[in-house]
Specification:
The structure holds two protein chains of two kinds. By secondary structure, chain A is of the alpha/beta class. Chain A has helices spanning 41-48, 78-84, 99-109, 115-128, 132-135, 148-160, 178-191, 204-210, 228-233, 238-244, and strands at residues 3-12, 15-25, 30-34, 58-66, 69-70, 85-88, 166-170, 196-200, 213-218, 221-227. In chain A, a hairpin with a 2-residue loop joins strand 1 and strand 2. Chain A starts with a strand and ends in a 5-residue tail after the last helix. Chain B is mostly helical. Chain B has a domain at 72-241: MetI-like (MetI-like fold, Orthogonal Bundle), CATH 1.10.3720.10. In chain B, strand 1 (60-61) and strand 2 form a beta hairpin. The relative contact order of chain B is 0.15. The chains are: A alpha/beta, B mainly alpha. The interface between A and B is medium-sized, with 27 and 22 residues.
Chain lengths: 249, 293
């Protein structure tokens, strides 16, 4: 198991946001988290790279192990962890810098100074994000000159530049048009060869298209977690059935 | 179902009311411009006559009834620079702390309360305090140093507030994006947040300079010289300053009638300096904004 989650409970103040969640995620798989708004799937995702540390008055019990190491152990350096566990957000959030500097950012803040290596890595990851051909002549141009879909692929390249072994994606295509969405999904299928991906999505077709396994969340509980095929054809629980057939949510 | 009768010609009345309101708003907005033009026009009318190269580059002479205001211009520029050295680093660092580090606890509330109150303290009180602390207790004497420190304290609240507000308006997605790549908080602030806040921070800094250049009360007991025709050579020297010189020319001296045109000339130079600063602030803001595009 690449990732093991054991008995997670998570609270915002007194609100019990995640209830007793346990699951395992294998290496080089894509796992989709689905569920209605407010079900806790994004909150859960943000636990893996400790993004919820930024929110005051939260409490966590249980364990998340990545490669057998407890993410929340006291001696863990959060910076090092976040380099290992990349994240792509719902809205493209490129920095106000050039395209090149956006991708190089992660390397620079982690102390890489070798210019040749940085240039190589930028090209590599932009190619990996299927963006290179579109931007190779304007690497010095501002990232804001790109379209929304290009910006999101830039953010994926940016996350990939520091060679994470897990990529967290929080509804990465929800702000994009259908063509850009298709490109991002294609990218997810490619990236699976290199790393483990967890993707939160509102779009069930998307979950069905890109993921190996799917977890359905409802009211802070993980109702069902199984192979994507099973979830979308023979779900065991009626809540799952109701959700995927569009009866609520 | 009960039906209601709509008042006749109501749409016309609404449109009429809207038009009246619109003209009222426009009138009062233009009134502001009118005030500025009135002051400017008056000062130019009264002061432009004495303006000359000599006026800008010579020291006052003949009991301040002739000559120029060069030492006062230099003094004011020195005080602006000095107060910037005092207030900018402290103010920007406090602003960063307030926006980025302090959680919403009582510390921030306390600092914010103090900052707000500090900006409400009358400037003459700053002057009094500056005299007690810098001039007397720390023994700096009446000096550019004491004056700069006092003016620096005065402009701190403005610098802190504009820095804090500039940074607070930057969306959290930028911070999260940076942290998610393994950047530390400090790296995030230095490489992403501060550059994004720069246009507004710069504007705040320059406005504080404008305010400092026009303050009289804080330097009254800490720095300003009634008559000091040679230029200051160290930060422990006194200096002349435009607003204080204006005050002196208008209230005391050997020949009030002869001094009056010089007073208006001084006022004109002071206003022009402040206008230049404000224009500069706009230009700098645009420059930093373009760097972000």
């Amino acid at each position: 198991m690449k990732i093991e989650v054991k008995d997670i409970d998570f609270y915002y103040g007194s609100f019990h946001a995640l209830k007793n969640i346990s699951m395992g995620i294998e290496q080089n798989k894509v796992v989709a988290f689905i569920g209605p708004s407010g079900c806790g799937k994004s909150t859960f995702l943000r636990l893996f790279n400790r993004m919820n540390d930024l929110i005051p008055d939260t409490r966590l019990t249980g364990q998340i192990l990545i490669d057998g190491k407890d993410v929340y152990a006291p001696k863990v350096e959060v910076d090092v962890l976040r380099k290992e566990i990349g994240m792509v957000f719902q809205r493209p959030n490129p920095f106000p810098m050039s395209i090149f500097e956006n991708v190089a950012y992660g390397l620079r803040v982690n102390g890489v100074k070798d210019k040749v290596f940085i240039a190589q890595r930028v090209e590599e990851t932009l190619r990996g994000a299927a963006l290179w051909d579109e931007v190779k002549d304007k690497l010095k141009a501002s990232a804001y000159a790109l379209s929304g879909g290009q910006q999101q692929r830039l953010c994926i390249a940016r996350a990939m530049a520091v060679s994470p072994s897990v990529l967290l994606m929080d509804e990465p295509a929800s702000a994009l048009d259908p063509i850009s969405t298709a490109k991002v999904e294609e990218l997810i299928r490619e990236l699976r060869k290199e790393l483990t991906i967890i993707i939160v999505t509102h779009n069930m077709q998307q979950a069905a298209r890109v993921s190996d396994k799917t977890a359905f969340f409802y009211m802070g509980e993980m109702v069902e977690y199984d192979d994507t095929k099973v979830i979308f054809t023979h779900p065991r629980k009626t809540e799952t059935q109701n959700y995927i057939t569009g009866r609520f949510g | 179902m009960k039906s209601v009768e709509y008042p006749s010609r109501y749409a016309v009345r609404k449109r009429y009311a809207q038009r009246v309101a619109f003209w009222l708003f426009r009138f009062f907005s233009l009134f502001i411009a009118f005030i500025l033009f009135a002051i400017l026009g008056f000062i130019i009318y009264k002061g432009a006559g004495v303006l000359s190269w000599d006026f800008l580059t010579k020291a006052p002479s003949d009991g301040m009834t002739s000559g120029g205001i060069f030492p006062a211009i230099v003094g004011t520029l020195c005080l602006m620079a000095g107060s910037a050295v005092v207030a900018f680093p402290i103010g920007i660092m406090s602003g960063i702390y307030m926006s980025e580090f302090a959680s919403k606890g009582w510390v921030v509330k306390f600092i914010r309360l103090m900052t707000n109150n500090l900006s409400g303290v009358p400037s003459i009180v700053f002057g009094l305090f500056g005299m007690a602390l810098f001039v007397k207790y720390l023994n700096f004497g009446d000096s550019i140093l004491a004056g700069s420190l006092t003016l620096g304290m005065l402009s701190l609240p403005l610098v802190i507030r504009t820095t804090e507000e500039a940074l607070k308006d930057i969306p959290d997605s930028m911070r999260e994006g940076s942290l998610a790549l393994g950047a530390s908080k400090l790296q995030t602030i230095w490489r992403v947040i501060l550059p994004m806040g720069m246009p507004r921070i710069i504007t705040g800094l320059i406005l504080s300079l404008g305010r400092v250049s026009g303050e009289t009360a804080p330097i009254l007991f800490t720095c300003a010289a009634y008559f000091f025709p040679q230029l200051p050579t160290s930060i422990f020297d006194q200096c002349m300053a435009l607003p204080y010189h204006l005050y002196v020319l208008s209230t005391s001296g050997t020949d009030m009638a002869a001094q009056q045109p010089i007073a208006y000339g001084t006022a004109l130079v002071l206003i022009v300096i402040i206008l230049i600063i404000n224009l500069l602030s706009g230009a700098l803001r645009r420059y930093f904004e373009n760097r972000l595009k």
